[in-house]
Amino acid sequence: MLTLSEKECIQLIKKRECFHAEVNNGSFIVKIDEYTPLICAAIHNGHGLRAELDKSFLLSKQERFYEEDPYTNELISSFPIQLIGNDSRFEYDLNRAKTLSTYFKTAWDKQVWQKPLTQKQRAISHAKHESFYNVLETIVAVIEKQFSNAIVFDIHSYNYKRIEKNTPTFNIGAGQIDVERWGKVINQFERHLNKIELPNIDVRAATDEVFHGRGYLISHINAHFDNTLVLPTEVKKVFMDEATGEVYPLVLEDLKAGFKDAISETAAFFMRRYTNKTRTQKADILSSNISPEVVELDKKLYSLCKSIETLNFINPVNLPAQKNRFLKRNSYIAPSFNYKQLNLNPYKFRESLYKLPVDDIYDAGIAQLYRHVIDNLASKIDLLTSIGTDDFVYNSLKYYGEPNHTDIANARFILHLNDDELPETDVYLNADEAIDYFRFQAQEWGLKCKIEKSSKIVAKAMVNNEKALLLINKEAKFTENELHAFAYHELGIHMLTTLNAKKHPLKVFSLGLTGNTHTQEGIALYSEYCSGSLTIRRLKIIALRVIAVQYMLEHGDFVKTYHALMNEFSLDKEFAFTLTTRVYRGGGFTKDYLYLTGFRDVLNVAKEQPIDNLLVGKTGLLDSSVVSEMVERGMIEKPVPLFDTSYTTSGDKVLDFIVNSIK
Fold first, then answer.
1. What does the alpha-carbon distance between residue 336 and residue 558 come to, in Å, rounded to a whole number?
2. Please, which of 162, 179, 311, 558 could form a disulfide with 334 given CB 3.0 to 4.6 Å?
3. Residue 648 dihedral angles phi and psi, to the nearest 5°
4. Residue 518 · residue 597 · CB < 8 Å
């Protein structure tokens, strides 16, 4: 961050240059990442006192915090233009006129100074006050000149425990606003504030219920500008203990994300209505630049985690030998699988993971995305370090979850449908022939990837994300329809998202967002459906995986699960072995139930909105709104699907009925 004088700051603003700076010896901060009609201010955020005043200041740190607005700078941290007060309102109050901004001796019925401030002391504080408003005026003038209108969100917080009545979480002060002119913007902001969800807190927004917005900032702007709307907003201190100043991080994080949505949606509405930007959307309000803090965090995260691919460690290295042994010995001695060793220290890994500087990221949504990823990776390392132990199944449950009653009911519904026995018996192509087909299809789609045979995977086909490599089980056999389905599934989605992720400056999309298994497998099955490749037979295989996970959790015994599946569903021995192995890998692997739930969830999303942005990399539905926002902001390249992903029926009335009956 730069250190600038008021004059230097103003010169940069007039040139429309972007910068972050402490101004006038750090009395306030100006952050400009992009020039937009949206300006955010947190003028009471700071609690600094210059040294000569600190000596005669009588209030404790706790008493000072009580009347200040700590953390309000974080509520506006996502926005491209910010002004943040660093000095305490007890030195000079930026929301009072300059001559009234310094308290003579008392404030809020408490003595503040040992003796009244001298004229010289007041003059220094008044100069800081004037400096702030000179910079603010310059910003507003530049914005009005460029966009004709501007909107300022003037953010404060308030103590509520001393107020006997039930007070709103958010209060917009309209006492100095021309409601006839700007009333619809106020209503829009109140509506979006009411949408914010906070943990264990009932949220309510109101206008002029507790405060009426009679502060100096709006008075000053109203006196100097005719086309700028100021929205004074008070936030109830539900994100902290107002008496002690202790912050509640979980509430604050959700509040930051909620404020980002409410302010950007309101500003977009303002721009559509009052500027020539009639097609402005929420994403247009936010900066298109990826901040250096995000780039640095992403680089460190990727360096730490780039080689941690679950399936690289969880597939048994002695699978062929154990399969032969099991099938040749009457299938009553459970296989003994061996696994690749994990070459990292889990304790140091977790320590490094949680030391990553997420708090340095200003954008609330992007910060939440990385927090989700870090928490997810911490669970993932627990999973990987327990491979082959009794703890593995519990860590798998923590990481992937388990099928609930609805998931099992969906699987049973599909398995009760009339169809030929599983698996398909009329095989057409072996692994070599499949590789030729996949290579041809990859070339047709313009996918630059490698395709090889492998004896070390359980599935028929699997994409290695790190190497952009499609592995084909050397013993696998495919029908023509299966090949078509696998092409759309493995190449059309898994390989495409692998290659797309490598295009972006942010490598988190290669590592995988939280819930990426559920989402990516769901999209992959959805692609089979869109392409006309999905069959009832294929759905039955996916449903069997859900039941296999259920039996694994109930039995905890490979042999028992194998024979239960064989007897109940009349399966081929090799198919039953593969199905059972999939869920017993590592010691009890619950991932396989996610295919069906992922398909259901992606299908439901696709019915409501486009899903193309999920193809930017290994994304998850949890952070899909942030991902789409990043695409719309131009921070990451918009993905181009290889085929139409918009929802449509397959044309097979029976299949469509079945798919739409999955709950």
1. 10
2. 558
3. -155, 155
4. yes
Q: Which residues in 71-174 belong to E strands, given as ranges?
A: 81-85, 106-107, 110-111, 150-158, 170-172
Amino acid occupying residue 278: T
Question: Residue 425 pLDDT more than 70?
Answer: no
The sign of the torsion formed by the CA atoms of 338, 495, 383, 605 equals negative
CA–CA distance, 408 with 543 (Å, rounded to integer):
8
Identify whether the C-beta of residue 117 lies closer than 8 Å to the C-beta of residue 126.
no
Report which secondary-structure segment, H or E, holds 40: strand 38-42
Beta bridge pairs of residue 48: 87
Kind and range of the H or E run holding 100 = none
Residues 476 and 593: beta-carbon distance below 8 Å: no
The strands making up 38-42's β-sheet, listed across from edge to edge, are 2-4, 19-23, 28-32, 81-85, 38-42, 150-158, 228-236, 170-172, 205-207
Say if residues 41 and 83 touch (Cβ distance below 8 Å): yes
Distance of alpha carbon 446 from alpha carbon 450, whole angstroms: 12
- Tell me the whole-structure pTM to 2 decimals: 0.87
- Residue labelled with tokens 């930017």: 616
Residues 442, 448, 454: CA angle, nearest 5 degrees: 70
CA 115/CA 138 separation, integer angstroms: 36
Pairing of strands 461-464, 110-111: unpaired
In whole angstroms, give the CA distance from residue 136 to residue 138. Answer: 5
For 304-328, the pLDDT digits (tens) are: 988 777 777 888 999 889 999 998 8
- Comparing C-alpha atoms, which of 307, 231, 279, 277 is closest to residue 511? 307
Rounded CA Rg of the chain:
30
Picking from 259, 327, 306, 347, the residue whose alpha carbon sits closest to that of residue 507 is: 306
Dihedral Cα 62, 67, 71, 76, nearest 10 deg? -170
Residue 576: pLDDT above 60?
Answer: yes
Helix (H, G, I), strand (E, B), or coil: what is residue 476? coil
Tokens 């193809």 -> residue: 615
In this structure, are residues 611 and 523 in contact, taking their beta carbons and an 8 Å threshold?
yes
Closest CA to 579 of 456, 384, 571: 571
Sheet strands (E) in 300-399: none
Q: Are 76 and 259 in contact (CB under 8 A)?
A: yes
pLDDT tens sequence across 269-295: 999 998 878 888 888 889 888 999 999
Q: How far apart are CA 183 and CA 276, in angstroms?
A: 19
| Residue of 491, 554, 489, 557 lying closest to 525 (CA atoms) | 489
Predicted confidence band at 259 (pLDDT cuts at 50, 70, 90)? Answer: very high
Q: Given the structure tokens 């630049």, which residue do they identify?
A: 289
Is 544 a residue whose pLDDT tops 90? yes
User: Would you list the DSSP string of 217-245?
Assistant: HHHHHHHH-SSEEEEEEEEESTTB-TTT-
